[in-house]
Amino acid sequence: MKARVGYYKELLLSVKKDIKEDLITYFNEIKYCEPSSDIQIIHLNSEEDIQKVYSGTGFYVILTGQRFSDNSSKFTYQGKNALYRGHCYSVKKRIMSHLANEQYNQTNSLYKVCLKVNPRENGVNIDQEPYKKWGWTVIVHKMKGSSKVMREQAEFAFDSVFGKPCKSREVNKS
User: Fold this and answer.
1) Which of 15, 57, 130, 165 sits a CA distance of 20 to 30 A from 147?
2) DSSP labels, 138-169
3) pLDDT in tens, 17-70
4) Phi/psi of residue 113, each to 5°?
5) 33 vs 45, 123, 137, CA distance in Å?
């Protein structure tokens, strides 16, 4: 069994590498200005707009017009910069936990890892100051039928192509 476990580990690492390399190609080639049924781009003017976000499985990028000096990600869309990227089984709920945190916490269990603009607070509330003036956009890559491993490779591939957004969890572990 020990030999099998070692073999499975090597096999899994190889598959992860192949998925990541394929997704690097995808992120290098994607044109966000062209309509796609696989990608949702939604501008959020209020927490209510989060209800329009895709509710299925996927990889997402949260962008804002607010600038952060420590943000090394070069991903931008319509003048907004990537602030956070992640993946989830239910993207809409996850976006709500990040951007309408008080509302989310009223009826849902807390996420241990969440967008932290302020190191002492999980999530933000885009209907409140100062966040309501920042301008928010969410880009969702729909990944119906994907596994957690596949979505994690999307995160790693995105980071390889664009750099990790400054508030993504691996950067800000507080």
Assistant:
1) 165
2) EEEEE-TT--HHHHHHHHHHHHHHH---TTST
3) 999 999 999 999 999 988 899 999 999 999 999 999 999 999 999 999 999 999
4) -115, 125
5) 20, 29, 14
- Residues 88 and 171: beta-carbon distance below 8 Å: no
Cβ burial 13-47 (10 Å sphere, 16+ → b, else e): eeeeeebbeebbeebeeeeeeeeeeebbbeebeeb
Element (H, E) at 88: strand 80-88
- Whether residue 46 contacts residue 127, with contact meaning beta carbons closer than 8 Å, is answered with yes
Q: Residue type for 131, please?
A: Y
Q: Quote the CA–CA distance of 98 and 104 in Å, as a whole number.
A: 9
pLDDT band at 170 (very low <50, low <70, confident <90, very high): low
CB 96 within 8 A of CB 104: yes
